[in-house]
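Throughout our pipeline, every protein is held as a single compact record rather than as scattered files. Such a record has a labelled line for the sequence and another for the backbone structure tokens. This encoding replaces a full spatial description with a residue-level series of whole-number codes. For reference, a complete record is included directly beneath this paragraph.
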Amino acid sequence: MTPAELEQYLHEHIPLSLAMQVSVEEASPAQVVLGAPLRPNINHRDTVFGGSASALAILSAWSLLHTKLTAAGYKTRLVIQRNTMSYEQAIVGHFTARAPSPTPEAWQAFTRMLERKGRARITVSSTLWYDGAEAGHFEGEFVALGTTGA
């Protein structure tokens, strides 16, 4: 899945991503990087609204799993079950969320359970970046339901 294909998918299927003007800067099974500008995500203090920052982090982690599952031939419903978010600094401009792939061991356990039970959970993290520095950290547990392929 190319960055353009993922961006189109997000904008068509997750309308919030279009309203936030989310762009896909990188999309591969190894890492997904999403970006967003300040203007549509601004709060009353002229910084990024915390909900927008959290949404971008969730979207990057979800997109990573969607990209990896699609590349491996799986068709699932992928939902978030729980998450934590911490904010390290105010964001006053374009920001990104980077979600790296889980370890090979975690991915293998996830896909093995998905194939055996048709349902599996995995934890994925994402880091918010602004102006070359970490601005926040997300960790979420996602559930994949149903599987075909691979």
Remarks:
- The chain has a mean pLDDT of 96.
- The chain has four helices and six strands.
- Helices lie at 3-13, 15-19, 50-71, 104-117.
